[in-house]
From TrEMBL:
UniProt protein name: Pyridoxal phosphate homeostasis protein
A matching Pfam family: Ala_racemase_N
Modification N6-(pyridoxal phosphate)lysine occurs at: K31
CDD domains named in the record: PLPDE_III_YBL036c_like
Domain named Alanine racemase N-terminal: residues: 24-214
Cofactor: pyridoxal 5'-phosphate
A GO molecular-function annotation: pyridoxal phosphate binding
Similarity remark: Belongs to the pyridoxal phosphate-binding protein YggS/PROSC family.
Function: Pyridoxal 5'-phosphate (PLP)-binding protein, which is involved in PLP homeostasis.
Keywords: Pyridoxal phosphate
C-alpha cells in the first residue's frame, strides 16, 4: 500500500511485460479520500489524479492547484451533459465519453473555449445494463463519429464486471483500440493493474491501493 509501493509494482509489471515505464501513467484516484491523504501524495511528488464526480473535484482541486504546480486531473466517472463545460475547464482528460450527445456537446464547447481535454471512449466490455460505455460492437462507429467531430480521442477505457476475469476484458479493449488505431488504454484498478499493464494499459486508475480504503460512511 501507498504511492511508492504502487509505483514500484507498476515498474515491475512494466519490466515483466518488456515495456518502458514511461508508457504507463499512474492515475491516483482520489475520490472520497480525506484531503490529508491526497495532500500527502502530492507532497511525495505525484501529480496525476483521477476523480469520478465533477462536483467533488471542483470542490477540492482549485486549492491544491494553487499550492502545487503541474497537477493533471482525469475524470474517470460518468459525465452528464449539463456538467460538460465545467468538466472541460477542470479536467485534462475525460475517460468516459460514451454517447453521441456527449460527443456533440464536447465538440461544441471545445469550439467555444478553444481547447479540449484528451478523450477516452468508454467501452462497456461486459455489456452490463447498469454500466456506462458504448457496446463493443458499436465502438468502431462511435469512435468514427468522434473523429468526424475532430475530437482528440486518445484511447479507450473499460471497467470489467466485478465477477469476471479482468484479463479477458482488457484483451478485448486492446483489440478494439488496435483495430481503430488508438494508442491509449485506460484499464486496471487496485486489484488488477498489473494484469492490465501486461495487456498494454497506458493509464492505470488506482485508488484504494494508494490512499487506503474509501470511507463512504
Ligand atoms: C474508484 C475508481 C477507480 C479506483 O478504484 P480502486 O479499486 O480504489 O483502485 C478506478 N476507476 C474508476 C472508474 C473508479 O470509479
Amino acid at each position: 500500500m501507498g504511492l511508492t509501493d504502487i509505483t514500484d509494482r507498476v515498474a515491475r509489471a512494466c519490466a515483466e511485460a518488456g515495456r518502458d515505464p514511461s508508457e504507463v501513467t499512474l492515475v491516483a484516484v482520489s475520490k472520497v479520500q480525506p484531503l490529508d491523504r491526497v495532500e500527502a501524495v502530492l507532497e511525495q511528488g505525484h501529480r496525476v489524479f483521477g476523480e469520478n464526480k465533477v462536483q467533488e473535484a471542483a470542490g477540492k482541486w482549485p486549492d491544491f492547484r494553487a499550492r502545487f504546480d503541474g497537477i493533471k486531473l482525469h475524470l474517470v466517472g460518468p459525465l452528464q451533459s449539463n456538467k460538460t463545460r465545467q468538466a472541460m475547464e477542470l479536467f485534462d482528460a475525460i475517460h468516459s465519453v460514451d454517447r453521441p450527445k456527449i460527443a456533440n456537446t464536447i465538440a461544441r464547447i471545445a469550439q467555444e473555449i478553444g481547447h479540449c481535454p484528451d478523450l477516452f471512449v468508454q467501452v462497456n466490455t461486459g455489456e452490463e445494463d447498469q454500466k456506462a460505455g458504448v457496446l463493443p460492437d458499436q465502438a468502431d462507429a462511435f469512435i468514427a463519429e468522434c473523429r468526424d467531430l475532430d475530437l482528440p480521442v486518445r484511447g479507450l477505457m473499460c471497467i470489467p464486471p466485478v465477477d469476471e476475469t479482468p484479463s479477458l476484458h482488457f484483451a478485448l479493449l486492446a483489440k478494439v483500440a488496435a483495430r481503430n488505431g488508438l494508442a491509449g488504454l485506460s484499464m486496471g484498478m487496485s486489484a488488477d493493474f498489473e494484469e492490465a499493464i501486461a495487456l498494454g494499459a497506458t493509464h492505470v486508475r488506482v485508488g484504494s491501493a494508494i490512499f487506503g480504503e474509501r470511507d463512504y460512511g
